[in-house]
Amino acid sequence: ISGTLTGLNEIDAGVGKLEINLNEFINNYNFYIEKGIGDIYINGEEVYNQYNSGTGINRININGGIGRIDINTLN
After folding, report:
1. CA-based end-to-end distance of the chain
2. Alpha carbon distance 39, 55 (integer Å)
3. Pairing of strands 40-42, 8-15
4. Does the predicted TM-score (pTM) go above 0.85?
5. How far is residue 55 CA from its own chain's centroid?
6. Residue 35: strand pairing partners
7. The predicted structure's pLDDT at residue 48
């Protein structure tokens, strides 16, 4: 997925790899992460369950299952 996400976003990933490339800076987002067996990385840094970042006006809730999720934002 490549683009911009605004407002409240729910991503429920089951099995497999997911890559999200956001066309915004990380401080525009607030991430809430829950994961299963897979790994989740935001801009190359691994994040863990209950990870909550930032105060951006756009919220992304991610529920990861099995597989890797990579989230990249503008630096």
Report:
1. 18
2. 23
3. unpaired
4. yes
5. 14
6. 64
7. 83
Q: What is the pLDDT of residues 32-62, one digit of tens each?
A: 999 888 899 999 999 887 676 767 899 999 9
Using CA of residue 71, residue 59, residue 13, residue 20, what is the dihedral sign? negative
DSSP state of 44: T
Average confidence score pLDDT of the chain: 91
Query: CA 30, CA 11: separation in Å to the nearest integer?
Result: 13
Q: For residues 67 and 64, give the distance between their C-alpha atoms in angstroms, rounded to a whole number.
A: 8
Could you list the beta-strand ranges (E) of 1-75: 2-3, 8-15, 18-25, 29-35, 40-42, 45-47, 51-53, 58-66, 69-74
Distance CA 45, CA 40 (A): 8
- Give the residue among 62, 47, 51, 45 at the shortest CA–CA distance from 5: 62
